[in-house]
Each structure stands twice: as C-alpha cells, then as structure tokens.
Amino acid sequence: MPDAIVFNNGTPEKVSRDTVLSLHWEAWHENQMKKLGKQMSDGYRHSGKLLGTSMGPFGLAELPMITAWGVAATPFCLLGDLFARSDHASGDISILPEPGVSK
Question: Cβ(33)–Cβ(84) under 8 Å?
C-alpha cells in the first residue's frame, strides 16, 4: 500500500496517508454547447491552416460544411443541456485505516 496520497494538478504534492480521513471530489460536466463550440473552433482553425497551402481549396470547402454541421447540431445540443440531470458529479470517499495499525 502507498504511504502517501499524490495529487497531480500542476505540481505534485504529497500528503501523509495517516493525516487524511476523507476526500471530497467534484467532476464538473461540460455542457453540450461548449463542446460544440470547441469542436467548431477546432474545425475552423484547421480550415484556416489549410488555406495558405496547396490544400487551400479543401480548406475553403470545409468552411461551409463546418458551419452547416454547427447549425444542424445546435438544437440537439440545446435540448441536451436543457434536459441534463445535473451540472456536476461529486462524492465523498472515507479513508479507512490500514488493517493492524492502531493510533
């Protein structure tokens, strides 16, 4: 068993296992409209990069396709966000002591 809990959010930090009694975690749900916006942004960025190359005509052809896809997907993303059950998931974890160890 490990003797520490390691958190990796930028910089590693060790916390002694014996000092932690419980953990609370949260996982925020990214809504569908934000996901659509990111996907469209990536698509436009990809098309823009193609415009200055020999693949420019393909990049130009992608632009209306990306826009049409975004317009068609928007109502479904809005409905998904409207009827989503929760904005985030969370929970609590109790840390049990190691068997045979008494304080």
Answer: no
Instruction: Write b or e for each residue in 6-39: b if 16 or more Cβ atoms lie within 10 A of its Cβ, otherwise e.
Output: eeeeeeeeeeeeeeeeeeeeeeeeebbeeebeee
Structure tokens, 97? 């002591």
Q: Note the helical H segments in 1-103.
A: 32-51, 56-82
Provide the pLDDT for residue 10. 47
Backbone angles phi, psi at 98, to 5 degrees: -65, 140
Q: Which of 27-31, 50-54, 65-69 has the lowest mean pLDDT?
A: 27-31
Number of other residues whose CB lies within 10 A of the CB of residue 53: 9
Predicted TM-score (pTM) of the model is 0.55
Identify the residue with better confidence: 54 or 98: 54
